[in-house]
Amino acid sequence: MTVSFDGRVVRPGWKLQVDGLDIGEGVTAVIGANGTGKTTLGRAVAGLDRLASGRLEIAGAVADDPAAGVFVPAHRRRVAMVFQDLRLFGHLRVIDNVAFGLRRAGAGRAGARRQAAALLERVGVDSAAWQRRPAALSGGQRQRVAVARALAPEPEVLIVDEPLASVDSSGRASLRALIDGSPARHTLLITHDPVDVATLAERVVVLDGAAVASRGSAAEVTASPGCEWAASFLGANVVPGRAHGTSVTTGTGLVLTVASEADGPVYVTFPAHAVTLHHDRPGGSARNAWQAELERVDLDGERARVHLAGPLAVRADITRRSADELELRPGLTVWASLKATELTVVT
Known about the structure:
Blueprint: E1 3-11, E2 14-23, E3 26-31, H1 38-46, E4 51-58, E5 61-65, E6 70-71, E7 79-82, H2 94-104, H3 109-123, H4 139-151, E8 157-161, H5 169-180, E9 186-190, H6 194-200, E10 203-208, E11 211-216, H7 218-223, H8 228-234, E12 237-250, E13 255-270, E14 276-278, E15 288-300, E16 303-309, E17 315-319, H9 320-326, E18 333-338, E19 344-346
Parallel strand pairs: 3-9, 3-10, 7-8, 8-9
Antiparallel strand pairs: 1-2, 1-4, 4-5, 5-6, 10-11, 12-13, 13-19, 14-18, 15-16, 15-18, 16-17
Helix pairs in contact: 2-3, 2-4, 3-4
């Protein structure tokens, strides 16, 4: 079953045109620069914005079709949305915020609270906070409560808008696991975080200019991003490892030197343009260097995207002139290097 969106949303001073977008089961990352319509897409699926024209189907049922006079209101759709500004009910205690959807679906108060308590434990909200109101919690705690509230009624579609923006490092891994294991058949992940895309998304939708610029698997969209913003964003390399101080050991045993200290499981991210290539081991200020085998070179105008295998399977963006001078070809062994200051450690 899919979410099928083919239509136009018009809001004051804003419009979004989506032509023939089918969103399959699993996690779909929706990416794009600020103001490209990501949240508007989510609101339309949730039933918070109406289509001006077109048709929206959720799991085979029409949810919005202006021409046919069909509009299923938000509370009748099996869709839950975690808003960027969270929108918790300020007058309700935390446990009742999470139990709200269950009560609305007909669950008794005691049973709804038991399920809410189990979810709050899973997202890492301490029981001491359950009887408080949201205003008494930190931003990260409120974010966790919002995720638990959305998951509680087991929606068909889960929409999460920047889900980890306010969560501290200790909670990001658990929330990613919770979103990944959500009972929702379809998850729309609106994000600016390349780690979210790399670790959660089965497919990617790129919005640009209030329209879909590219769609497909992460590999397909990386190869054909549809706009300059997405090309830069998807050029980010994401490498898992374990940090100890300013050293991160990757799964293949390569040790990277980073500029900031951390401890425990982390992701190291760096843009493709930060990777430099050489025939011989480089000297100078680059503190990380390793030998890699060149798998493929994709040429795009004056840019070359080089795909590397070896201890790190990463991408490097270099000029076409540099690629010609290095005589790059599949199977060639090269040296790759990175400055520690180009690496970002994400927990």
